[in-house]
Amino acid sequence: MNGSHRTQTMGGPGIAPGSHPVHRAPLARVTRAALATALATLLAVVGMAGLMPASAAAVVPVVTSPSATPDAPEGGSELQPVVVVMDYSSSMLQADADEDGTTRLEAAEAATLNLIDKAPDGADLGVVVYGANTVEDCADIETVQSVAPLKKGDLKKKIEALNAVGETPIGASLLHAADELKDHDGEKSIILVSDGEENCSQPPACEAAQDLADRGIDLTVHTIGFKVNDQARDELTCVAEATGGTYVQAENAEELESRLETKTVRAFQGYVPQGTPVTGGETLHASPQLAPGQYLDKYEKGGSKIHADDGTLKFYNLGTIQPGERAHFSALLIPDQSAPAERGASYAGLKVELVNGQGVSCSSIDSAYRGDDDGGRPIAGYVRSKDYAQESSERCYSDGSGQLYAKVMRTSNRQSDLALPVELKYVLEPAVDESSLDTPASEAEPVQSVTLSDAPQAIAGGGSFNDATEVDSGTVLTDSTMPMESRYYRIHVGYGQRLNVRASQANVDDAGPDGIHVDVYSAVRSPVRTVGDDLLYRSGTGETATQSMRVPVSQSNRDGSVGSDAYLAGDYYVVVSARKWTGDRNREPYPYDLALEVTGEEQDGPMVADPGLGQNPSTVQDGQETQSPDDGTDQSAQPTEGAGQESEAPVAGAGGNDAAAPGDGEPQAASSVRDSAPLPWFLGGLAGSALLGGVLVALLTRRGPAAAGGASGVAHTGPTAPMGHPGDSRGTLINGQPQPPYPNSSPQNPYGQEGPQR
């Protein structure tokens, strides 16, 4: 075994033996184009493609990526149905929407078409218009699109054919729109856009809104005033406040487009959890096996009191890792964001840890807590495995198996009786040729000023990590956040680069929150420590808070005292959350400007070591044939194309993972596990994820026999993996069946009589 043989840079393409490293072009020119070509399913999810050595001969099975649109567990935030009510009265023909003489009708049409383009896939959207058909007719109210998943092309044609000729029956239109939503349970919204006040009063607008509020049907009406006078503004504000909604004003075509998109997409949102459905095990060795990817579980209860560690506990089998590899695992708890809460009354939390088969800790323990006054700030726990060297002194790896499990507990008492979704992400990092690393940073660099001076662009952030809005370095944007929500942006940060963020207050005089948090997360959802200010308090328009990553991204910092939380290149996340709010203003948004700048020249990453480095020669030999289990039911969980759909990919078997990266629509080849190049996200750093609802995924493992049998709706088809790895000899799967090694293991004592070794 040649442990120093280089096959691939972590920032560049695969390298055949004997060739020279290939410097990669910037991500936008190479990586994204390659990913788009490689995956026909890009709309659902972006999977990362790797390059195999030219000499590869044996077929490696392809494992599909996690679904981008699975059903959320009960208790989580799903896409809410929304009806947009648009004003097509004759006043919309006024040509004052901008300096070029655009009519209000043209501006409204453009804003609606933009909204249709931006609506999330699968969203239930209805469109109602008034005044589009008949002069002086207060009954001229038309449903253009019933509340149902969009057929975007058809709806656009209908919108483009509308005229503005009639009256302004706001009250009757609200009742009409509510009737369109009558068959939809749970939270729902109406977005009303008008350029004037009610002139029909059948019934008056405010009375209609109060009637809807009194029905108790979980309906919120948000209103947008387009170039309105004071009387219309008061009326639209009354409509919104009656139902617990918000009013905003648009003075021109650009503002109307931004306001309509933001209001409607926000009404759809909340944090929409995504991932392949999985159910964690109640005990260590009865846990499902996960390939690298994104998953979604449901945790039934929280703790009995603040910070109590007695909520739902679950385990996940991550398979085996080899010396030099590192497992990254994150868990994100998603509270019900629609549920009101008093400030400081309770906390929600998660505790995350990696352990081996005896329960010995293989990571630090990360506990993430958020109080009610933290709004929608992410409750994200992240851990990574300890260093696994060839001759490891870590007790975690003392048995030489490299077997890892994730242990996740829901803690604290916020919404403790409500089953909540938990989003899980598992990334496996390949071994690095340490001779290609430099000396780690010893101290943080000073905060760097962000001098961008362009006028802010109206850019709406996403509602989750999964649909974070992609922005480029040099972007200056304006947006707002509400209590109990966060706004997510993603930006590429390469090796040798540093992210700098400046947050500025817009007009905050009427803002509900007392301030905002601006948090940075790495490509593997590790919270990133920064220098500078990450809090912006409401103290007047123009106040700023600037922060920078402590040092540029470098693999050399992975075990250092500075920068170990941000040593991987890829798409980083900037998350803006409302900090606190006062009870009488908790429906008002907090407007802000955000400037994002990535400094430093992007560099190639370090060399990836020979994939065979660290394999146990006593258990894995070149040319070894994989033995599939003869029978039994497979307990493993593989990412699938969609929730509840069957996958054509083989499933990881006894104690190992055999996932490979999707290529150009064809299975890739390798002569053996030892010869196959490390795959995925190092093609361009941990790169991005997200078309709408996209999921960051790394299919990095390539060991383990393919399991026979089937469970959880997964079809076991396709070629057998070359080269096996026995993996977990203490249980999990033997002939497809879990084999707990400890007697009397139970949810109360997951490790059985022997208990964990600490």
UniProtKB/TrEMBL annotation:
The keyword Transmembrane applies. Residues 1-22, 543-563, 603-673, 706-758 are annotated as: Disordered. Keywords: Membrane, Transmembrane, Transmembrane helix. Residues 1-10, 543-559, 615-639 have a biased composition (Polar residues). Residues 649-665, 706-718 have a biased composition (Low complexity). SUPFAM superfamilies: vWA-like (SSF53300). The keyword Glycosyltransferase does not apply. The chain crosses the membrane at residues 679-700. Residues 81-264 form the VWFA domain. This is Ca-activated chloride channel family protein. It comes from Micrococcus terreus. The lineage of its organism: Bacteria, Bacillati, Actinomycetota, Actinomycetes, Micrococcales.
